[in-house]
Amino acid sequence: VRDLVAAGRLDELSGLPAASLLRALLPLTNRPEAELRLPAIPALGEAAARQVAEDPEPVREIFRRPIWSLNDESGSIGWGAAQAMAEIMVKDEALAKEFSPLLVGLLAEDPGSPDFPPLVEGALWAVGRLAETCPTWPRTPTATCPAFCSLIIRSIEPWPPGSWAWPDWSS
């Protein structure tokens, strides 16, 4: 799976069982190398959509790992954790309703929220992606422009050009 993702041959993943594909793609979404992480994120969303059609429970279980990777106690950096959660949620409205509060909670001003700029950027991107693709997504008071602006202003590093653009992963 890693070789197919690295080579950009994502169409070949569709023949693999969804549950196996989820387990193989999830670690790739947590890689610091963008060339592995970025194509793995939409592939994970597609695999999750297939799995939800069969049985949604394994997909619900998948959410624990990205959430844990964003926790300081995990000892890891959840490079694409928020984006991976969003890509799964955009494929299933029920999952979006169930897990979007966790995603939006990453943007709360509390000690448990990520403060590493790439993780904050990822969380902002993920919430934007969810809002863009799920018009019925329930908004919460935290998901407001002032919260987003506050995060950007407090950011340690400048935001890279184009960081607010959504990639076209459909091709």
Please describe what this structure looks like.
The protein is mainly α and 171 residues long. Helices cover 56% and strands 0% of the residues. The protein contains nine helices and no strands. It has helices spanning 2-6, 18-25, 34-54, 57-62, 64-69, 81-89, 93-105, 117-133, 145-154. The radius of gyration is 15 Å and the shape is globular.
Count helical runs.
9
Mean pLDDT: 77
Question: Stretches where pLDDT falls below 50 for ≥5 residues?
Answer: 141-145
The total beta strand count reads 0
Rg for CA atoms: 15 Å
Question: What is the H/E string?
Answer: HHHHHHHHH
SS-derived structural category:
mainly alpha
Strand content: under 5%
Helix percent reads 55-70%
| N-to-C CA distance | 19 Å
User: Biggest β-sheet: count, sense, barrel?
Assistant: none
Shape: globular
Task: Give the tags.
171 residues, mainly alpha, 9 helices, globular
Q: Can I get a quick summary?
A:
It is built from 9 helices and no strands.
Write the layout of secondary structure elements.
Elements: H1 2-6, H2 18-25, H3 34-54, H4 57-62, H5 64-69, H6 81-89, H7 93-105, H8 117-133, H9 145-154
Helix pairs in contact: 2-3, 3-6, 6-7, 6-8, 7-8
